[in-house]
Write a structure and sequence with these properties.
- It contains 10 helices and 7 strands.
- The chain has about 375 residues and is of the alpha/beta class.
- It has one domain: 3-Layer(aba) Sandwich (Rossmann fold).
- Strand 4, helix 8 and strand 5 form a beta-alpha-beta unit.
- The two termini are about 30 Å apart.
- The structure holds zinc ion.
- Zinc ion binds next to loops.
């Protein structure tokens, strides 16, 4: 085949992929609008939500290292009011496939290059920097449990059986905690281990507020964290009636937020099968700024973004969609487990993921061709 024909073919494929990416983006944006139109509060005259009572002892259960952002303002407010805060990461976010790790290696994430455990260690460091921005001391206030990314739901399912076998991570091949700096290195990947660790943290810290993900969060690690957190709490009678439980508003349960413009406000708009009453915390300019800085630490989560989304407004990552003028926390009134709901949300999120992957192909291709 002649060189010019090859060139034409290349550009034709490139344009076809670009068109597909744009169509998928539009689909995604439409899907989001559907979820974020708040029928009762359609005008700008929105009803104020009750204000969150600032705790004295706040414990945040984060399924992955960056999920602390969901309560970044509340952590800062707790500290400035003289309270204490702790963060527990159930996983180190070591869920990347070998392909993703190769991709990160190309992007210059040398520490992530060998395997998924190194990737988990890299994400730990990002999180340590981020919680420092929020006013915490990572050595004392941030605990890694080291359970497998993308494995919490299966561990939860297995824990319902008698003598369940330890789960083996497809990413790290570990069936026990592989991190020396975790709470309990070598703890088998079982529901019992997770409950033991969570109960020991809860019992040591005695929080008056526990923040953990919504039970209907479509990300299974997040939903599983709800169940493990509540089960662990139920093991400690001294905390019953003393520890409030709130869920942050998480985009996994709907879609990206209303806007990634600076200074947007989040409103609770999703319909979930579990009725939830929402409260909010208005961030001060300083808290907002610190949350932006804390967000910028998660560079590994930004390597996957694509440049085509019109609502990015100069930011390079959906991660900044966590940074609103306010934070929302809800009280789940009753838990209704609805697999159909979870699947419908997953389907809505799919175009964004496909769009992001295609966008990255272009970013990479551009760098390759033009050496940027
Ligand atoms: Zn997460």
């Amino acid at each position: 085949m002649s060189r010019s024909r090859l060139g034409r073919r290349f550009w034709a494929s490139a344009f076809a992929l670009l068109a597909l990416a744009l169509v998928l983006d539009q689909w995604r944006v439409r899907g989001r609008a559907e979820l974020t139109v708040d029928s009762d509060l359609a005008s700008d005259e929105r009803l104020p939500l009750p204000v969150v009572e600032v705790p004295k002892r706040l414990l945040v259960l984060a399924p992955h290292p960056d999920d602390v952002l969901l309560a970044a303002g509340l952590i800062q407010r707790t500290l400035s009011a003289g309270g204490e805060a702790r963060v527990v990461d159930l996983t180190c976010g070591d869920g990347k496939s070998p392909l993703a790790i190769r991709f990160l290696k190309r992007k210059g994430f040398r520490e992530a290059q060998n395997d998924a455990v190194n990737y988990g260690l890299y994400r730990q460091k990002e999180d340590q920097r981020s919680v420092t921005d929020l006013g915490l001391n990572p050595t004392r206030h941030l605990t890694f449990l080291g359970y497998p990314d993308s494995g919490l739901w299966e561990i939860l399912e297995r824990s319902k059986k008698e003598n369940p076998e330890a789960y083996r991570s497809r990413n790290t091949s570990a069936d026990s905690v592989p991190y020396d700096n975790a709470l309990r290195p070598g703890a088998p990947y079982t529901g019992n281990s997770i409950l033991t660790d969570l109960a020991s943290v809860l019992s040591d810290f005695q929080p008056d507020l526990l923040v953990l993900p919504h039970p209907n969060d479509h990300h299974r690690d997040h939903a599983a964290t709800w169940y493990f957190g509540n089960e662990a709490l139920a093991l400690l009678p001294e905390l019953i009636g003393k520890t409030r439980v709130l869920v942050p508003f998480d985009f996994h349960s709907g879609d990206l937020p209303h806007s990634l413009k600076r200074n947007f406000r989040m409103r609770p708009t999703r319909e979930t099968p579990s009725p939830t009453t929402w409260q909010e915390l208005e961030l001060t300019p300083a808290e907002y700024q610190a949350k932006l800085t804390a967000t910028s630490r998660y560079t590994s989560q930004m390597a996957w973004e694509h440049p085509f989304l019109p609502e990015y407004h100069g930011h390079i990552s959906y991660m900044y969609g966590y940074v609103a003028r306010n934070e929302l926390f809800g009280e789940v009134q009753s838990v209704i487990h609805d697999e159909g709901f979870r699947r419908s949300i997953e389907m809505k999120a799919l175009p964004a993921r496909v769009g992001a992957v295609i966008g990255n192909v272009f970013t990479d291709l551009g760098r390759h061709l033009f050496g940027k």
